[in-house]
Amino acid sequence: MLQIYLGALAFGGTLLIASMVLGGKDTDGGHDHSDGDHEAHGAADGMSWLPVASLRFWTFLLAFGGIAGALLTWIGSIGEPIVGIAALGVGWAAGIGMVAAMRGLNKGSVGSEVVLKDLSGESAQVTVTVKKDQIGKVRLSAKGRVLDLIAETDDAEPLAAGSSVMIIGEGDAGRVQVTKENR
Q: Are residues 73 and 147 in the same domain?
């Protein structure tokens, strides 16, 4: 049995070291659902809690299960069936723990993409005059980017080029709704 544990440790350890050195991505086989829609997908595939399609899971199961089995066999104070169960338990826990940790990190990750609904309350500069029932353009900086956006307003007074406005929400067809900024 020691050869099996050492083989699992060698294979899993090699994958673990290679992923650390090369910085590869996990292939979760569609089970990751990091888009925050886990409940909707979980009912559909029914097995989303079981991460056996994850390369990361198998890497940690083999590496940590192999080392646990090898060390317990080397110590030699307990029987082989108990060593096998303990090694499998350690490997399973390591694999599940790592996949769960990565899924948690993915859910909380922050991207640099700008979504219109996130711009509410931001100040912008009018570049093309915006009038009621006529579109114009505004420019603003958000998340390190300079954005030129199509804008519309419900203000009776036109918002002249060069004036400061505040984005108050999303408008029609991907536009932003703006109003005169009170300073």
A: no
